[in-house]
Design a protein that fits this description.
The chain contains 8 helices and 7 strands; from the N terminus they run H-H-H-E-E-E-E-E-H-E-E-H-H-H-H. With about 350 residues, it is mainly alpha-helical. Strand 3 and strand 4 form a beta hairpin.
Length: about 350
């Protein structure tokens, strides 16, 4: 078989090009720490990597949402603690002094009344607190201030509805009750799903809603005393401002006021339970984050030592090919012309 110079050179250039390509690929693997940079290089691994990346970014979104929810709940808890402390101060300090018998002068009672009305305003401001641009105690309507206290402190509205309605009032059943039970769900990676009528399945998502009236109460009892802490504080102030102060009636209101603190404490406890759940979920998401990164590294990453060894071998092969080339190209037809 006759091997021509042209065929020899053609084969040499083809093999040299393949050697350069191998060297370039091994160099890229060392520099990028990736086993492939194009889908065509490894379609199966690329498909697997695509799935892992989707899971990873979804997990990252869930983790960011969870951190946002934690901050939101911290704001809710701080506000409720302020309200609880205000109730405690009024009950354990002002009411006791008023009913003790040694500070029942009109001027002193007026001082206590003024202080209680300031606490009324302070509690209302706490319930209208925001996180970023969302009102924390507005239920599903976080864009508008939920509570509005009248100038004289005698009435309070929640999203435009008087919280001191009697249970027989239509708005109590049709509006206040549903508003107190509102939910607002977010997906934290628990498999968000809907039921047959497109409602979120509660066990598949996290409820971040806390309607303010759920914590501070609404409606009134058979004696006409409000079941709302802020309105009842106004009723305490009203009694203190009367010239014919009725200690017995004031004591009855004070007892009711003190008992309503239990509702606020219960909601603080519920927030604590939710916070514990969020902490557990956060640990799970962080562990999932690490696991997904490890899986992506196995699919896309390279063994550094192996990649460097492969690169050095291809570098050696390329250099050898160049040396072979010099031995092929050196002699020419001119060299044989004497």
């Amino acid at each position: 078989m006759r091997i021509t110079t042209t065929a020899l050179m053609r084969n040499y250039k083809s093999n040299l090009g393949r050697s350069v390509d191998n060297l370039n690929q091994s160099r890229n693997r060392v520099m990028t720490q990736r086993s492939f940079n194009k889908v065509s290089e490894d379609p199966a691994s690329a498909a697997r990597a695509s799935q892992l990346h989707r899971k990873y970014y979804k997990n990252q979104d869930n983790l960011e949402t969870l951190l946002d929810v934690q901050s939101r709940q911290d704001g809710q808890e701080d506000a409720l603690i302020q309200i609880s402390n205000a109730i405690k101060t009024i009950s354990a300090d002002y009411n006791i002094q008023v009913l003790s018998g040694d500070k029942q002068g009109q001027d002193e009672r007026q001082t206590f009344s003024t202080a209680i009305r300031q606490f009324q305003k302070s509690m209302t401001l706490s319930l209208n607190s925001t996180y970023e641009d969302t009102f924390l105690f507005a239920g599903s309507d976080g864009k508008n201030p939920p509570f509005e206290l009248s100038a004289d402190g005698s009435s309070l509205t929640y999203r435009g509805i008087d919280v001191n309605l009697d249970s027989t009032h239509p708005d109590y059943t049709n509006k206040l009750l549903p508003l107190s039970q509102e939910s607002l769900y977010v997906d934290l990676g628990m498999g968000l799903s809907l039921d047959g009528i497109d409602r979120v399945v509660p066990s598949s998502a996290f409820d971040i809603s806390l309607p303010g009236i759920k914590a501070i109460g609404f409606g009134k009892d058979a004696d006409g005393l409000s079941d709302n802490v802020i309105v009842l504080a106004g009723q305490l102030a009203d009694e203190l401002e009367k010239t014919d102060f009725d200690a017995e009636k004031y004591g009855k209101i004070a007892d009711k006021f003190k008992s309503l603190r239990t509702n606020v404490l219960n909601e603080i406890t519920n927030l604590g339970v939710k916070s514990e759940f969020l902490s557990t979920t956060k640990n799970r998401l962080e562990n999932n984050d690490i696991s997904l990164q490890e899986q992506m590294l196995k699919v896309e990453g390279v063994d550094t030592a192996e990649a460097i060894t492969d690169y050095m071998w291809n570098q050696y092969a390329y250099n050898a090919a160049l040396k072979v080339g010099t031995s092929i190209l050196s002699p020419s037809f001119i060299d044989f012309m004497k």
